[in-house]
Amino acid sequence: MDQVTQHNDQQAQRKAAMAVLAHAEAGEIAARLRNLSLPDHQDLRTPENGLVMLRGRVGGDGAPFNLGEATVSRAAVRLASGEVGFGYTLGRDGEKARLIALCDALVQSRDFGGAVERDVIAPLREQLMVRRKQAAAVTAATKVDFYTMVRGEG
Amino acid sequence: MYVAVKGGERAIENAHRLLAHKRRGDQSVAEITLDQISEQLGLAVDRVMSEGSLYDRELAALAIKQARGDLIEAIFLVRAFRATLPRFGASEPVDTGAMRVQRRVSATFKDIPGGQILGPTFDYTHRLLDPSLAEGFVPERPAAAEASTAPTPRVTDILGRDGLIESSPEAEDGASVGDLTREPLNFPADRDLRLQNLARGDEGFLLAMGYSTQRGYGRNHPFVGEIRFGEVEVDFVAEDVGFAVPLGAIELTECQMVNQFKGSATEAPCFTRGYGLAFGQSERKTMSMALVDRALRARELGEEALAPAQDEEFVMSHSDNVQATGFVEHLKLPHYVDFQSELGLLRKLRQEFSKAFADANTQDAMKEAAE
Q: Fewest CB within a 10 Å sphere: which of A86, A100, B191, B269?
C-alpha cells in the first residue's frame, strides 16, 4: 500500500471514530477507556471552549449562509510515543473533548489502534446505532398510510 | 442625553435581591432544574437557541430560568454570553437532505419518496386544555414500526429535476459568506445576510410579516413544498487537524416554500421559492421565515415592491428583538435631564402663549369698549 492510500485510510478511520465519539457522553467514553491500560500521555492543548458558526445553504442545496453559532469544546493530547490526537465536540464539556483527543491519538497508534477500536469505538458505535434505530422506529410509526375512500355505488 | 446621577445604589441592589427572591417563587415549591426546562419546555429552549443565535440547550435553559420565562430576556442573555467566547471558525454547510428526519410533511405532494411523516406535532390536536396533564401524567410508550431505509429527498429537489422550480442560487467563486455579527449591515443586502437576519429574527415579527403577505400586502401565492425536522451532522474543518472533523449533530427545522411562478421571453415559467431554516423544532418560525424570504426577493424577481414585507431595510432593521427591546425599553431608564430641558422649553412656550392670549384678549376688550 502506498503512503497516500495509507494516509487516507487512517484519516477515514479517525473521522469515523470521531463521528461516534462526538455522540457519546464523556462518562461513557471514560468508562470504556478504563478497559485499556493506557500509555503515558499529556495535554498538548488543555480543553478550551469556543464557538463555531454553523452554516446552511440557501434552499438546502445552494450558496452557504450563516445560520447561527454553536458552542464547541476542543483539546489536543500527545502520547509518549509521539502520536497527537485532537478532540472537537459540540457543547462545553472540556473533559469530553480531552477524551476524544486521547482516543484520536490512540487510533493512530500502532500498539493501541486495534484495542481502542474494539473496546471503545465499536461498542459506542453499536450503542449509537441502537439509539438511532429506536428513534427511527417511533418516527416510522407516524408515517401516513393514505387510502382512498370508495365513493358512490362502487 | 445621559448624565451620571448618584444615588439609588442601595435601591438597585435591593431590587435585584428582590428579583432573585421572586424568581425562585414560593420556596415550598420544588425548584425547577435545567434538565426539566430542556426536556419539558423544549420548544421554548429551541426558540431561545434560534433567536439567541447560539446552539446550546443547557445555556438556553439556564437563560430561561434566569429570565423567569421571559423569552426575549433569555435571548438577550444568550446573545451577551456568546460575546464572551472566541470563535474557532465556521462549519461546513449542513446537508439537510441527509437529515435523520423525525418529521417531514409536504402540502403539495401526497406521495413523496420516503412518505409523509407526522412526528411529534400539535397538528390535528383539538386544542382542548387537558386536565390530566396537571399532575402525575405518564404518557403511553410511543408506537414503533419498521423504519424504511429509503432516502427522503427534499421535495424541491424532486421538482427541480423536471425544471418545474427554480434552482437554488449557487455561490459565486471565491465569494465570502456575509456575517452580520462581524460587519455592519448595508442595503441592499444579499440573500445570505437576509437569511442570517431572518434566522435570528423575532418569531412574532416574522409571523406578522409573513401573515401580511398572505393577506395581500405583497402576495406571493405560497404552498408548503416541505417541512422537515430532525438531526443533521455538523462537520468543521479544523486547521490543526487537517480534515473536516465531525462535531456531533444538531436538530434543525427546514421549510421549503413553493411560490408563484415566473417566466420570461427567454426562460420557461417555473415556480419560485422561499427558504426557512432554524435551530430545533421551530415550524412556525421557519414557515414565516420562508414567506418573508420570498417576499424580500421582489426586486430580484422583477415584482413591484410596495408592501412592508418586501422592504428589506424595513424588515431587516426591525426583525431583531434584542435590538428592538433595547431601544424600546431604554425609554424607562432615567431621562431626567432630557426631560427637564423639554419641560423648560414647554413652560417657556406656555408662558409666551398665555401672554399672547392675554394681550389679544385685552386688545379685543379695548376694541369692544371703543365701539
A: B269
Domain encompassing residue A118 = 3-140
Instruction: Say if residues B305 and B188 touch (Cβ distance below 8 Å).
Output: no
Residue whose grid cell is 472537537: A88
The identity of residue A140, as a single letter, is: A
pLDDT tens digit string along B147-199? 988 888 898 988 888 888 999 999 888 889 999 999 998 999 999 999 999 99
In a domain, B25, yes or no: yes
Predicted TM-score of the model (pTM): 0.93
Among the partner-chain residues B175, B200, B247, the one whose CB lies closest to the CB of A88 is: B247
Q: What is the 3-state secondary structure (H, E, C) of B270-310?
A: EEEEEEEEEECCCHHHHHHHHHHHHHCCCCCCCCCCCCHHH
Domain presence at residue A12? yes
Q: 429535476: which residue's cell?
A: B161
Residues B41, B63 share a domain: yes
Q: Which residues of A107-142 are buried (b: 16+ CB within 10 A; e: fewer)?
A: bbbeebbeebbebbbebbbeebeeeeeebbebbbeb
> Could you report the predicted ipTM of this complex, rounded to two decimals?
0.94
The alpha carbon of B298 is separated from its chain's Cα centroid by a whole number of angstroms, namely: 21
Nearest CA to CA, how far is A14 from chain B (Å)? 9
Domain count, chain A: 1
Kindly state whether B168 is in contact with chain A, defined as any CB-CB distance less than 8 angstroms. Answer: yes
Domains contained in chain B, number: 2
B285 and B240 housed in the same domain: yes
Q: Which three cell numbers stand for residue B3?
A: 448624565
Q: Is B355 helix (H, G, I), strand (E, B) or coil?
A: helix
Q: Could you tell me if residue B3 is inside a domain? A: no
Q: Are residues B101 and B246 in the same domain?
A: yes
Distance CA B152, CA B274 (A): 20
Q: Please, how many CA atoms are within 13 Å of residue B139, restricted to the half-sphere of its CB?
A: 6
Residue B261 forms part of a structural domain? yes
- Residue B48 structural domain: 9-82
A75: three-class secondary structure by DSSP: strand
